[in-house]
Amino acid sequence: MTTTEKFGKVDIDRLHIELGEGKHRFEALQDVSIAIAPGEFVCVLGPSGCGKSTLLGALAGHLRASAGSVRVDGAAVDGPHPDRGLVFQHHTLFPWKRVLDNVAFGLKMKGVARGERHQRARDLLKLVGLEDFEHSYPAHLSGGMQQRVEIARVLINHPRVMLMDEPFGALDAQTRLKMQELLLEVWGRIETTILFITHDIDEALFLADRILVMSPRPGRIIEEIKLDFARPRGPELVTSREFTELKRHCLALLHPETRVVPLERLSPLGAPDLTHIQFAI
Amino acid sequence: MALSSSYSPTADGVPQDNAVSPTLSVRPSLDAVLQKWLHNWLHHGLRLASVAVCLLLWQWASTVHLNLGLITFQNVPSPKEVLQAAWALAQSPRLLSHLSASLYRVFAGFVVAALAGIVLGMLIGRLRWLADVLLPPLELLRPIPAVAWIPLAILMFPSSEISMIYITFIGALFPILLNTIHGVEGVDARLIASARSLGSGRRAILTEVILPAAAPSIVTGLSIGMGTAWFCLVTAEMIAGQFGIGYYTWASYTIQNYADIIVGMLFIGVMGMGSSALIKKLGGLLMPWYLLQR
Predict the structure, then answer these.
(1) How far is CA B251 from the centre of its chain?
(2) Band of pLDDT at residue A256, cut at 50, 70 and 90
(3) Within the 115-134 window of chain A, which residues sit less than 8 Å (CB to CB) from chain B?
(4) How far is A257 from chain B (nearest CA, A)?
C-alpha cells in the first residue's frame, strides 16, 4: 500500500461491559482503555473467563458497551463489519462450502462476480499454503489447515483490524508453532492491525509487539509489556534469556498467590446462553 | 494489498500438519475388502431371511386357520392368495389410474406442506415473537389425527380432490415444520457471527447460513413427512373417488375382498418407503458435505 494514511487505529476508552440477564448479570469488563497503533500486533493475555474474549466481541461489534466507547479509525463500532475480521478458535468455516467458496464468501457478500472472487480467493489460499485444497470441504482438512482457511477468509476483506480469539488454542503444540510463524509471515506482507487473544504466555511473547495482561473477572488491564524482540522471529527466540525472564514475569502476573476459582469461559458473543429453548419433535 | 506467491509453509521440508483426508491416506488391503464384502452379504442375507421367515409364518398361520383366541387367522388370506390378487391388479389397466391418482394427491399435499413447513419453520425458528404467536395454535392442531379432519375437510373445500390433498398436506406438515424449527434453532451462533463479520446482511444470513445449516434436519423432516403423507392416504381417499390405492384398499374392505385389502396395504407401504428413500437420497446428493462430518 502506498497511501500515506494508515488504517487500523483502535481506541478503546473506559469500556465497561456487563453480561447476562437479571440476577445472573455480572461485570465482564471494567474500565478498559487501550490505544493501538495502525499495523500493531497486540496480544491480550489473561486467565480463562477473565473477559478477554468479551473485549474482542465488543471490538467485533457483537457485544454492546455498557459504558465507554470503542473506535476504529475514529469511527464508533456499532455492529459487525468486514473491516474488523473475526477468527474463532475452531469450527466456524461453513461446512457446506468448499474451501475456495469459504474464502471467497466476503467478496460474495460485496457482490463481486464469481470469477474474480475465486481468483482472489486462490491468491489468498496460496498465501496460506493451501492452493491444492480449494475443492476440499472443511471436514476434509486438519485443524491447522482449517485455521489457515479461516485466516484467508478474513483477509480477503482487507480488514483494518484482525480480531483473533485463541485461534490456535485447539491445535497441538507442533502445529500451533507453525501457525504462529505463518501468521507472522502473513502479517509481515499485509498491513493490518492484529488483536490476538490467548492464555498461552509463550504464544503472546512470540507474536506480539505489545502484551496487555488482564486480571481475573471483572477484566481490567493490569500490565502492559512492550516486546522489542527483532523481527522476523524464529523458534530460537523462545529459548533466549530475555524471553524466559519475561515469561517468568508473566507467570507471576497470571498466577498470583491468591488462587481464584476458575470461571466459566466467555465467548465474543457474550455469556454462555442458559435460556436457549430446544423444541422437542 | 500486494501478495507474493512465493511463500509456502511446506517448502522447508517439514511435513504438512496432521492427516489430510482419511480417504486419501488409507488404502484398504484386498483382505479387508473381501471381509467387508462378506460382512455386507451376511447382513443382506440375514435381512432377506427375516422377511422370508415372516412370510412362511403367515402362510402357515393362514392355511391352518390358526386361532389363538385373542387373534385369529381364520379370515386372513394367505400370501399366495395375496400374490395372485396383486398379479391380477398388476395386469389390470386400473392399476395405473389408481397409482397416478394417489401419487398426485400425495405429492401435491407433500409439496405444499414442504413449502409451508420450511418457510414457517425458518421464520418461527428465527423470530421469537412469531414463535409465540404461531406455535400455540399449531401445537393444538398437531395431535388431531387425519381421520378426524374428514368432515371439516369436506365442508371447507370446494372439491373432494382438494379435500383429499388437504388430508395428505396435514399429515406431512408437522414433521417438516418441527424438524425445520429444530434445525434452525440448532445453528451454531458462531457461524452466524462469522457471517455477519464477513459482511452478511439479514437476508444473506438466512440463505447462506441458516438454510444450509438447517438443511440436514429439514431433509429428515421431509423424509418423515413423505412417509406420513402416504400414511394418511387411505384416510384421504375414504372421502370420495373412483381411483387411488387408498380408495382401492377401502373399497376392497367394503366389498369384503380380503386379499385385495392386503395388496392395497402393501402397495402403500412400498410406495411410501420408496418415496421416503428417494427424499433421503436426494438430500444426500445435495449435501455431500454432511456425510463427511460424521
Answers:
(1) 27
(2) low
(3) 123-124, 126-129
(4) 36
Put simply, whether B191 touches A (Cβ < 8 Å) is: yes
**Residue among B197, B3, B203, B4 nearest A157 (CA):** B197
Domain of B49 in residue numbering reads as: 30-76
- Between CA B179 and CA B121, with CA B186 as vertex, the angle to 5 degrees is 40
Mutate to test the interface with B, among A109, A134, A146, A157 (most CBs of B within 10 A): A109
Task: Tell the burial category of B16 from Cβ atoms under 10 Å away from its Cβ (0-12, 13-18, 19+).
Answer: middle
- A65-83 burial, b if ≥16 CB within 10 A, otherwise e? beebebebbeeebeebbbb
Q: Which three cell numbers stand for residue A175?
A: 502445529
What pLDDT is attached to residue B239? 82
Mean pLDDT of A215-229: 89
The predicted-structure confidence for A137-189, as pLDDT tens digits, reads as follows 999 999 999 999 999 999 999 999 999 999 999 899 999 999 999 999 999 88
CATH code of the domain covering residue B130: 1.10.3720.10
The 8-class DSSP code of residue B67 comes to B
pTM of the model: 0.81
Length of chain B: 294
Which whole number is the average pLDDT over B186-211? 94
Q: What is the pLDDT of residue B6?
A: 40
Chain A residues in contact with B2 by the CB 8 A cut-off are 1, 189
The answer on B253 and B137 residing in a single domain is yes
Question: Each residue of A26-79: pLDDT tens digit?
Answer: 888 999 999 999 999 999 998 888 888 899 999 999 999 999 999 999 999 999
Q: What pLDDT does A272 receive?
A: 63
On whether residue B10 sits in a domain, the answer given is no
Number of domains in chain B: 2
Confidence of residue B236 (pLDDT cuts 50, 70, 90): confident
| Domains of chain A listed by start with CATH number | 8-83+161-167+192-281 (3.40.50.300)
Query: What number is the average pLDDT over the span B154-169?
Result: 92
Could you report the predicted ipTM of this complex, rounded to two decimals? 0.86
Residue in A with minimal Cα distance to B205: A109
Q: Do A81 and B193 touch (CB under 8 A)?
A: no
Dig out the grid coordinates for B198 from the structure.
464477513
**Facing residue for B178 by CB, picked from A171, A185, A279:** A279
* Partner residue opposite A82 with nearest CB, options B21, B197, B293: B197
Asked whether residue B154 falls in the same domain as residue B231, the answer is yes
Can you give the pLDDT at residue A216?
A: 85
Q: Count of H helices and E strands in chain A?
A: 8, 10
Task: Confirm whether B50 is domain-assigned.
Answer: yes
How far apart CA A233 and CA A96 sit, in angstroms, is 37
What average pLDDT does the segment B178-197 reach?
Answer: 94
Q: What is the SS3 assignment for B196?
A: helix
Backbone dihedral angles phi then psi of residue A136, each to the nearest 5 degrees: -80, 155
